[in-house]
Write a structure and sequence with these properties.
single chain, 137 residues, GMP Synthetase, Chain A, domain 3, 2 domains, two-stranded antiparallel sheet
Length: 137
């Protein structure tokens, strides 16, 4: 089981911890934040982009191909009713000179990304609200 623990730091900042790793999420100043970390939607896009990049690079490595210049850009639009992100687009910049076969291989590899597949096949999500010990009524 994967686990991330999130703690409120104050204002609109949160710290997410997984093992020894920490990421801070914040809001821009225009939304009462300090702009000291990515917003939750940006973290989601970063998760998708780094996962896609991992699978693209893995494919290139397994096929003994150049990794030079590999970059991933992920975009999404805000949608309403309910508020969410929609119209995701993953753009992988692959090394120059890749054959059509390897371009297709990189694309197939990106489609194996865990985050990509999670978004394409929405998971069940359960929300549980617990009271902290000694919380005021």
């Amino acid at each position: 089981m994967l686990e991330v623990k999130v703690q409120h730091l104050g204002a609109v900042q949160f710290e997410a911890k997984a093992g020894r790793n920490t990421v801070v999420s914040d809001q821009p100043e225009s939304n009462n934040g300090f702009d000291e970390g990515m917003t939750p939607p940006e973290l989601l896009l970063a998760s998708l982009g780094t996962c896609a990049g991992y699978y693209a690079v893995d494919y290139l490595k397994r096929n003994h191909l150049s990794l030079e210049g590999v970059q991933v850009r992920v975009t999404a639009e805000k949608a309403k009713n309910p508020a969410r992100l929609d119209d995701f687009k993953i753009e992988v910049e692959a090394p120059a000179g890749l054959s059509e076969e390897h371009i297709k291989g990189v694309e197939e590899a990106v489609h194996r990304c865990l985050i990509h597949n999670t978004l394409r096949h929405p998971p069940k999500i359960e929300t549980v609200i617990k009271r902290t010990q000694g919380a005021a009524k």
